[in-house]
What we know:
Blueprint: H1 6-32, H2 36-44, H3 47-56, H4 60-82, H5 86-104, H6 110-115, H7 123-152, H8 154-159, H9 164-205, H10 209-234, H11 238-258
Helix pairs in contact: 1-7, 1-9, 1-10, 2-5, 2-9, 3-4, 3-5, 4-5, 4-9, 7-9, 9-10, 9-11, 10-11
Amino acid sequence: MEYLSQSSFILSLVVGLLVGAAAGLLGSFMVLKRMSLVGDALTHVALPGVALGLLFGFNPFFGAFGFLALAVLAIWRIGETTRLPTETIVGIFFALSLAVGILLTPELELLEALFGDISKTQIYDGLFAISGSIIVFLVMKKIFKKFMLAVISEDIARSAGVSVDKINLLFLFLVALIVALGVRVVGTLLMGALVIIPAAAAKNFSRTMAGYVFLSIVFGILSVGAGLFLAKILNLPPGPMIVLASVIPFLVSLSAIKR
């Protein structure tokens, strides 16, 4: 079985690099906000939407983003009314979505839903990736100062007139967008790794905030690029290879902590 043909490789690479860059950017802030496990669990919420897309023959992106958007709104609303920790609410949605998604996903497409299949990338996937990645970068640039203030201290941010709840909700929507885009790249089970691992590696190397965010983006790009090249050369599934490639910078970064 050939996982990446020559014709699909270039388009897959373009889509993967854009998603990797945006995932690295968002991941850098998720690590700062100590939301790594939340981000990983949130990626699994996309599974029922992906399952519906595979079942009824429409683009899994729309199903994934639809379910993620509804989940984000529900998580935000429940958090506002009950004051339960975000990770607790996300954990509930994670378990529910995983159960429903596995029941809905056709058996033949289950591996594709869980681990992705970037070889099926089409032109419109490239357009979605370009548009979604640009949206992520533009929105994060616009809210950067307010969001960073909220990361440092939500109380200080509120006293400065920042609507912390709305900023957090907007950030979660951006995470939902990039997770939906990444479903084709590495699947619902592994997308959390693409968001978190490059950022974790960058944090070990970095000494400044600007350097940290920049390295997170770079490692996200390198993870996807290296993973796809390895998958092409070794004829192995791209999703797991991308995640394995992302671990290499993290392992190297451990030496930076000792220094």
